[in-house]
Amino acid sequence: MIKNTFRVEINLEQQMCDNCIRNDKDYYEYLIQIRYPKRLIEKVNEDIEFILKTYKDLINNIKEKKNGIDIYFKKNISYNKILNKLYRNFLIENKINSKLVGLDRLRSKKKYRTTCLFKIVDLIKNDKIYFKGKLYYIKSFYKNNLILISLDNSNKKRITYSINKNFIKKIV
User: Residue 109 in contact with residue 100, Cβ under 8 Å?
Assistant: First the structure.
């Protein structure tokens, strides 16, 4: 009987599986930043609590900031549901960025990290404003639009906030 002995050198590299990586609190694929003015804290917190309860299984981390909150999600979600929830009560400016962070070798797909900033404007229903020199009150919001009622002649006007924000002056 012949016996051969071989010496084999093995280099081991420690890696975590995709599921374990996603459970790490520093890992996220989707970040939603909600920023709001101080006077709206109580109203906004109700909507934030609803969001946290609805998506609790997908949330990896939550960080409170000076003027808002950052919610980190394990995987991509539909931000439209969250945005629509906030649109019901608030006027919102939003920005969305995606950053390439790697490549999924198994699926040959690019991996992105998406950041959504939802900035709640310091205007609420029934606030009085000047728009192009005329006095109005805010009747309602519809996404990025304001429905205004003139205090002079009760005429109704619908304007897009992002286009007209430089012409709006809030009465304190």
Answer: no
